[in-house]
Amino acid sequence: MPSISARQVTWNSLSWLAAPVAGLLCLPPVYVAYLACTAHPSVWTRLWTTRVPELLLNTFALAFSVAFGTLLLGVSLAWVVTRWDFPGRAFWEGALVLPLAMPTYVLAFIYSYLLGAGGPVEGAWQRLVGPEARLPSPHSYAGATLVMTLDTFPFVYVLARTALLNMNASYEEVAKACGASRPRILYRITLPLMRPAVVAGLSLVILYVVSDFGAVSLLRYQTLTYAVYQQLTGRYDQAAASILSLLLVVIALLFLYLERRSRHRSRFYQTTGRYRRRMPHPLSPLATILATLYVSAVWMASFGLPALLLIRWSWGALSSGAVDARFWAFAGNSVLLSGLAATVAMLLGFPLAYLATRRSTRLTQLSLQTAYAGYVLPGPVGALAWLAIVTNLMPFLLGSAVILVLAYVVHFLPAGLQALEPALEQVTPNLEEASRSLGLGLAATLRRITLPLAQGGMATAWVLMFLQSMKELPATLLLRPVGFDTLAVRVWLEASEEYYQLAAPSALLLVMMALPVIVLLEAQQRRAA
Amino acid sequence: MFHYHFQSGSGCFLVGGLVSLLIIAAAQTALSAPETEHLVVYSGRAERLIKPLLDAFQEKTGIRVDLLSSATTEIVNRLHAEGARTPADVLVTNDAGSLERARQLGLLRPLSDPGIAAVIPAPFRAADNSWIGLSGRVWAIVYNTSLVKPGELRSLLDLANPQWKDRIAIPNAGSEYLQAGVSVVHAVYGRDRTKRFLEGLKANAGTQVYGKSSQIVEAVAKGQVALGVVNHYYISRYLVNQPTAPIATLLPDQYEGGMGVVMNVAGIGITAHAKRPHLARRLVEYLVSEEGQKFFADLNKEYPLRPNVAADPSLPPFKTIRVAPVPLARLAELRESALSLIEEVGLR
Questions:
Q1: Fewest Cβ atoms nearer than 10 Å: which of A204, A287, A406, B239?
Q2: Cα–Cα distance between B87 and B26 in angstroms, integer?
Q3: Interface ipTM
């Protein structure tokens, strides 16, 4: 049996092993910052005087309007399905999370078809009003707001719903007994209690909007993230791209910091054990119709109609023979790359999370936190970073799949860690210690105690990282090896030339792979609530 | 102590991670190991306009062709970043400006056999034969014959006149040929005039900005707008399917002293670091052969550049067209300022 001191040494050296992994993970943002800082001052001045103000304005305007839109949709929908009872309520409660399965660029190309010049909505409008009638273009601020809102409102909806379900009915009843009017109860009791959840949802939305590439590029709305990609691909200019990237990283960091601070200041605790859930209020037939209309309209716009269109187009593509061996090869590439990425991320993330939960030292905590660096790296920024790192430091890796897998790992590890960390925290160290004291080594304890107990969370983490990698677009576009297109790349290549029918089968497959996972996670969430 | 590293689960995970990375790397290298008979083509031309030719070449010669399609500038950037390690043997793009740019960056090599290049007239290839034009396209105006009389406009710049407010359709700012067109107008008329032209174009088009030129032609045919700017072949293609559509082609600036139409070519070059230049040369040879020229141009109803190869009969004869006097190679240097102008004016 190893002596205590030997064990101590093992743990320490393990902690030191975590450091290089963390170093690898925060290499991209650091390298981008380095590139930006070494760029010629004239590039800085040119950007600040020409592009940056407009891009900042566009980015913030979009983030603001989408946050506002998701706030309205998310909270009102959560209210409708938790506070009111009407036929079909349970169905809608689950169905409203489905838009999460739809990548933003898929929704974007569907809406640029629907609302675009010469599209079906304009056609219908012209039949009503006359052939000269015009509709506002979807390739605009309004269009980008619409698409991003429809795609991201479930983030707010899910968290607001949980908050409403977990709210103790007695708070509102006490207020009512004290003679407070209904609007007053809403403003003084219910909404403040929902605030932490809603803020968390909104910050997810904002981070998502700021880092989105697919939708804004197909809708040609200039945000910082899109500008980074354009600098990289439309111009011959890495320096400008790195400066815009640094700006994005700083914004994302600031935002995360503010978000954490605001969360600290607004926590609510259930202080008594007398928790009662509020029962939903049955609706009159007329109100039922109105509620159903509202919920189904949002659902159709965000998921139903796009899914139907994808199915129709895919059917057309299928019957014209566009779903051939090449298509399945692309699907295979997607699965292979994403599977590798999720597995490597798991192998790198597990020790980080494990060490941080079991031997919490400053070093292990720091390593874990740096693994979240991927959060502040929107896709094109990550792609730029890896492109530059590989070109300058490891040219032998250029054009190989390794670099793509690395980019996925760094970008999506945070999503995995968020599922992995709680899973490991829930395994009580007592069990592991008991196992160790009965003579099992660290490896055997891991294999026989920790891994089986944390299995569920690990599977969730793997699947989340897998799915995110599947739909990743900008890094894949820039770093893919020759002859190694993925489904996401095919969607983008076809959709950006507006060959919707050819884009549809790949898009549909992406959505179909995400659906079961979302349904399972939703079921889990509801059991927990 | 060392012993424990390998017994510990976390260590195994770390090692496992690195090992799997190495395995991928090895697999990659194995996959990309040079075979005798295969060729890697980087292409900025829409896949459906190049794949059939490569398939035909593969059929004919038994040389396997691997294709990477992407946006033109991106593919040139990629070639540049990869330097000597690039797997690409051949670069194909739809824009002479980007080919010239690649030549200036030293990414292309002059064709070793000048005889192959000589079948294409000199204005359509690089001075040192680093790239060779394969097909030509011109910027044409498509108009609705019941809404516009041919005499109502004669210059591209007329499109900015207020009389066309809400009556024209234009391609989006991302399209390469809009960028090339603006470059040419800029070179001929200077910055201020070009800027006014773009502002007028933007105001007149309003929301009628399309991602796909076939939709512009369709909007004109349906009478939603009176005119549109597109590459010439979109008009011919539409008329093949809808011969009775009320549309016609107008080549602008053809009057005495006029600028002439904006022209651009799709072309090909062999990369400076090609591993298989001899195979690449065979592809070039095929594409400039009479058979290849006919196939390449007809696939998209463009003009073959080899003089004795006839263009599609539905097209106005190439010899009669007045072309803007801006050498194709200059498109490279003109591009940056054209992009800035487009951004400044805020075309979508």
A1: A287
A2: 16
A3: 0.74
- Mutating which of B10, B22, B51, B215 best tests the A interface, going by the most A Cβ atoms within 10 A? B10
Q: Which two tokens stand for residue A373?
A: 């660096």
Give A443→chain B minimum CA distance, Å.
Answer: 4
Cα gap A476→A470, rounded to integer Å: 10
Tell me the pairing of strands B168-171 and B90-93.
unpaired
**Could you report the per-residue pLDDT of B112-149, keeping only the tens digit for each?**
888 888 999 999 999 899 999 999 999 999 999 999 98
Query: How far is the alpha carbon of A499 from chain B, nearest alpha carbon, in Å?
Result: 9
CB contact under 8 A, B224 and A397: no
Closest CA to A421 of A491, A343, A369, A485: A369
For B113, other C-beta atoms within 10 Å of its C-beta total 11
Residue B233 pLDDT > 50? yes
Taking the model in full, what pTM does it have?
Answer: 0.81
- Contact state of A483 with B166 under an 8 Å Cβ cutoff: no
How many whole angstroms separate alpha carbon A52 and alpha carbon A58? 10
Are the beta carbons of A219 and A138 closer than 8 angstroms?
Answer: yes
Structure tokens at B300: 């998209």
Any bridge partners for residue B108, and if so which? B271
Question: What are A184-228's pLDDT values in tens digits?
Answer: 888 888 888 888 888 888 988 998 898 888 899 888 788 988 888
Q: For residue B291, what are the CA distances in angstroms to A162, B129, B134?
A: 67, 21, 12
pLDDT in tens, A70-107: 999 999 999 999 999 999 998 999 999 999 899 999 99
List CB contacts (< 8 A) between A55 and chain B: none
Q: Which of A398, A405, A498 faces B212 most closely, judged by CB atoms?
A: A498
